[in-house]
Amino acid sequence: MTTTLLAAAPATGPATTDPLPYLAAGWILLAGLHGLVTSRHAVHAIGCLTVVQSGTYVLLLAVGYRWGATAPYFTDIPPTTPVADPVAHALTLTDVVVGAAVSALLLALVLQTAKRHGTADPDALTGLKG
Predict the structure, then answer these.
(1) Tell me, what's the pLDDT at 31?
(2) What is the pTM of this model?
(3) Which of 82, 83, 87 is closest to 63 using CA atoms?
(4) Please, is 125 exposed, middle or buried when counting C-beta atoms within 10 Å of its C-beta (0-12, 13-18, 19+)?
(5) At residue 78, what are phi and psi to the nearest 5 degrees?
(6) Which band of pLDDT confidence, cut at 50, 70 and 90, is reported for residue 14?
(7) At 106, which helix (H) or strand (E)?
(8) CA 31/CA 85 separation, integer angstroms
(9) Residue 62: CB partners within 8 Å, gap ≥ 6?
(10) Phi and psi (nearest 5°) for 10?
(11) 49-87 per-position pLDDT tens digit
């Protein structure tokens, strides 16, 4: 007995014609950038960087979304069923993992800098100027 694996047909329409997810991603990105620029504490800056990265999550999910599509599980749906783009969802998951690792590394660096110099204020770190 042979089993044939058939992939579902990808959705042919645009990702979405609704501008709301793209506007939300842009707003989240700008809010995080504003906090990053006005930050006076390194931990606050790392939190704002995480908010900026959350905007990329929303953007990637909006790009991968397809109207009327189902989840891309190919074992139990007919071959003509449109599916959402699994690559965008995989990139979002990768973005989450990389973001968590970068945030942890930056927080560890801030902790070590605060131990050595007694502050986490970037403007007060005079010993690091080249």
Answers:
(1) 96
(2) 0.74
(3) 87
(4) middle
(5) -65, 155
(6) very low
(7) helix 86-117
(8) 28
(9) 15, 16, 21, 22, 25
(10) -70, 155
(11) 999 999 999 998 888 887 878 777 777 777 787 888 888
